[in-house]
Amino acid sequence: MLRKLHGLPGLLVALLLVVLAVSGSILSVVPALDRARAVVPATDEIHVAELAGRVVAHYPGAEQIVRDLSGQVVVYFSEDGQAGADRIDPRTGASLGPYQPSPFWGWVKNLHRSFLLASPGRFMAGMLAAMMGFLCVSGVLLLVRRNGGWKALMQPMAGTGSQRIHAVLARLACLGLLLSAVTGALLSAQRFGLLPEASDSAPAFPAEVSGGQPVAVSQLKALAQVDLNELRELVFPYPDDPQDVYSLTTAQGMGFVDQSSGELLQFQPHAIGGVVQHWILRLHTGEGLWWLALLLGVSALSVPVLSVTGARIWWHRRSSATPCDSANIPDADMVVLVGSESGTTWGFARALQRSLSQAGFRVHCADMNALATDYPKASTLLLLTSTYGDGEAPASAGRFLERLQAFQPSSPLDYAVLGFGDRQFTHFCRYALRVDEALSSKGLNPMLPPELIDRCSVEKFCDWGRQLGARLGVDLALHHDPVPPATFELELVERVDYGCAVQAPTSILRFRMAGAELRLPWLRSSGPRRLPAFEAGDLLGVLPPGAEAPRFYSLASSRSEGVFEICVRKQPGGLCSGFLHSLKPGDTVAAFVRPNPGFRPAADTRPVILIGAGAGIGPLTGFIRKNKARNPMYLYWGGRSPTSDFLYQPELGDYLEDHRLTGLSTAFSRADGGSYVQDKLRQDQKALRQLVETGAQILVCGGREMANGVRQVFDDLLAPLRLNVDVLQQQGRYLEDVF
Ligand SMILES: Cc1cc2nc3c(=O)[nH]c(=O)nc-3n(C[C@H](O)[C@H](O)[C@H](O)COP(=O)(O)O)c2cc1C
Q1: Which domains does the chain have, with CATH numbers?
Q2: Cα 316–Cα 368–Cα 429 angle in degrees, nearest 5
Q3: What is the pLDDT of residue 527?
Q4: To test the ligand 1 pocket, which listed residue (151, 171, 368, 386) has its Cβ within 8 A of the most ligand atoms?
Q5: pTM, whole model, 2 decimals?
Q6: Distance (Å, rounded) from C-alpha 448 to C-alpha 467?
């Protein structure tokens, strides 16, 4: 519900909000420009009597002095019957030039306030500001739910593409946007009388004035007690009218000054309502607070990006979450229920539904939240669900467990749960496991143990399909291509082979964009720009000929190096690794890049502990290579034999020498007294504990078994600090890339 409330109004008003935000950003530079042009004396340097004396010397016909919040002083005067206004230097009273509000700024202000449409436009702008406030609040609540709590809001954001950009930007900009929105809506509400009028009422004109001979304004003692920086406005009395008075407005209040005695008369402090109104205006416009104005302006610039990414998320969710040809509940003999937050699981569900329908089943497909109380003809219930937050339900399954209590199947039901998640999270597929438990406690028959799919592995999905088909007695060939990737052609330029002697053939493969040399010489400089953006740790998807699904390899290089470098261990019977190992320089492969922003060292100076085994060294070497700032980096790596599969040995020696790498510890299982990387970690546990105490981040890359062993070692060595891997993971300080 909250998601719908956030998404739909956002889409409808996105364009108008962009106009409001961009014009607001442009206006946000005005306070800084005004401040740069203003001459602002120190406190106690000039008092108002002094200023007024200087003004009168330059402008005998002075009528009013106004000091705006940025410090600009403007004199309004009449000369030879003509009215004029000049900006002045308060230190001399001399003119700095005529005061002429710019037509450009006036136009932008008008666009921002009312879309150039006078009162109806102003009303619309006010409504939009209120709606932006609502989008900020609902967006933050969604982020909290998606990430698993308020604390998680401060941690690195998970997700990819538009989702991630939207979340990261919204987190940065939401406070600024909220302040602009709330103050804008309040200003509008005041203008349209929806809030009580809070402006100051002026004090009554003094009943008695001395009426004596006026003295020079520079001699008036009440004005001599007001610092210039406190002044807002001084209105001069009518010439030759001894009964008239000076009207004085300061930051504290309003009053009058007798032009003969110099006494302050009828001074009235600003009413609280007036002060509130003044601050609402200042917090919205940033007047006199140029730094705040610029911060608000920068926040507002996020609105166009948030609008575009928000629309893309909405479109992706909508197009992924539309079930096709779903049978009605009373007719269905097979029910597929889907728990999804951003729609990916729906893609898998549709593939399953297609295959089941082709196999002759009448399949009802719906959100898990739409669980009915009974499916009278159904014999099988299949649940496909992702996990969000800190192991919680995704949006379309949030009410499933509650609804399950009222679920009363009229005939026995078999069920199977397929979980979608990401092993980099502490609670991998936890919600799917909870659903499985709940269904089992409800007395349904599990036809398969729960299967958990890491990062949308199509391979695993197809395996599960085969098992399910076997249980249903049909041939269930599932085909699903989650996001059809746009591939490019890579040409192998170099390979370095290791490990054959110890039955662990592993190669470092370096590719470049195919066909680069065919470009015309004068276009050669555009070469690197043709490469997609990628960093060490991102994934290279490779599609071997004849394969339906890509295989992913962690990149050891980044775009600035101009090559795609991966480290590949040949798996027995492995289609893709076998294909890659058969390549000779000059051969080509179809590939694409998938960002993996969750597996990167933090961009700060804290120590980094890199741990890997076998081909897992690839991205870790990439991180060391990029460590030009020489931040402390320690590598623990395990292989089989120092003479056969010590991957990157020469490079690592160079990095130790030039201090990109601070320490290297290797473990070889087939050398004398064979050891594993976990043994090396245990040996160094004291030093590692100290590094963690100083804020170190840990990145682990390699096989699941090694990663589990490393987790155990860290859980043990962190115990004296009352810490464990789960906590570090929640703080974004323990990252795994496991295959
Ligand atoms: C903010 C966020 C939190 C996540 N939390 C978890 C989690 O706790 N456990 C897990 O296994 N996967 C987690 N994931 C990964 C998703 O479950 C996974 O990407 C899934 O394929 C998304 O499917 P959907 O698009 O259908 O929601 C999280 C992803 C994001 C973006």
Answers
A1: 2-31+105-198+287-315 (no CATH), 321-472 (3.40.50.360), 488-594 (2.40.30.10), 608-738 (3.40.50.80)
A2: 80
A3: 43
A4: 386
A5: 0.61
A6: 8
